[in-house]
Amino acid sequence: MSNAVLDINDKPSGGQLVTLSLQHMFAMFGSTILVPTLTGLSPAIALLTSGIATIIFLLVTRFKVPAYLGSSFAFIAPIQVASATGDGPGSAMIGAMAVGLVYGIVSLLIWKTGYKWIMKLLPPIVVAPVIMVIGLGLAGTAVHMTMYETVGDNKEVYSAAYFVIGLITLAISILCNNFFKGVISTMPILIGLIGGYLASLISDAVFHTHLINFSKVVEAKWFKTPDFLIPGVDYEFHVTSTLLLAMVPIVIVTISEHIGHQLVLGKVVHRNFIKDPGLNRSLLGDGLGTLISSLIGGPPKTTYGENIGVLVLTRIFSVWVIGGAAVFAIFLSFSGKLMALVGTIPTPVLGGVSILLFGIIASSGLRMLVENKIDFDDKRNLVIASVILILGIGGAKLAFTKTFSIEGMALAAIIGVLLNFILPGKAQPDLEMEREEMEMKESSIE
């Protein structure tokens, strides 16, 4: 039985709705704007599309799943690769469209054939090392942002001030995550950004480090339409193999992440979301959110663990609250002053929170291996994990022609799936999936 304060379809009063929705919006805010900041996309568009994608998700899942969709960290490196090898951010958006379409295809297959096949295709021994690659592959970016300042003609020099600010930001995020309870513990990234920003202001005032420039904030209008990226208007729509191979294989990880979130959510609210409204619907909602987001310049979307954390703490599962958070995010994206203020966040502050975030991503892969009791005395498992890690972190590249190549994380994910099928021996069962299914059956009996 659910011990919810407000169940999924319960509607809170007006004052409650505003307060609870803002709480969810702030929980996702830091992570959602961090992804576009690191990839050269618009934070305003990321915020706008997170709200739009969440509303689409709620509609597709028939208002049965209280999940919020924010910017996906799994696509940071692929977006950077697509932007660098193509025509800028527009190229990454073409890849994101393809990702949304793949979600739709997988959703259709699950609707027709069930979901067990996808769990066999994406076992923990493949998915966990790829998740580790995502975090570890971005480690250099996080540390570089925390330690190096750009001066003169794009020359980068070590900066003690940057490093101190980055460490302060990291320390604040860790303190919030580990030593506080309640809502604060679910927003370590946002609070870390705020704390690092205040430390930067103090550094500017006392040591004249010039970390923050408010000129653009002063010039910004209170109301400003976000900078959309429209295919055929702001960039040429050219689908290339390079773009598809940089972005699409990451679906291997994000679909697994999606399934995991649905299982956790189901456990929290005492429902079987894999069965009702169905994994096909939740994946379709996620995919449509990503597709619509990419059509106007937003990063790919994923359900957010931060907001699941808020559900756990508050026991308020109402989809009205999730929808309210989405509406607030949409309105906030049109605040020129706020978005200009976001643009003034110093690089070392972003680097400080990135160290924690990317480390958590890598550790999540390690945790998946532990929770599923992957046996590394089994040479089969050892080989699969080893190959994925080295190919992914090492940035391996398989070039067929000058314009057709697979590299890095995408190549590692594809080879991991192939090795899982090719190598002799019994594939490791998904014990976590089995455990969750058993708990759901017991819950439905109750």
Question: Mind explaining what this structure looks like?
Answer:
The chain is globular, with a radius of gyration of 21 Å. Mean pLDDT is 89; it is low at 440-446. The chain has helices at 14-39, 43-60, 76-85, 89-113, 116-121, 124-137, 139-147, 160-179, 188-207, 215-219, 241-247, 251-269, 274-295, 305-314, 319-332, 336-342, 347-371, 379-394, 408-422, 431-445, and strands spanning 69-71, 148-151, 155-158, 301-303, 397-399, 405-407. Helix content is 68%, strand content 4%. The chain has 20 helices and six strands. Helix 1 crosses helix 15 (319-332). The chain has 446 residues and is mainly alpha-helical. The strands form three sheets. The chain has a two-stranded antiparallel sheet with strand order 1-4. It has a two-stranded antiparallel sheet with strand order 2-3. Strands 5-6 form a two-stranded antiparallel ribbon. The longest helix is centred in the first third of the chain and has 26 residues, at 14-39. It has one domain (14-438).
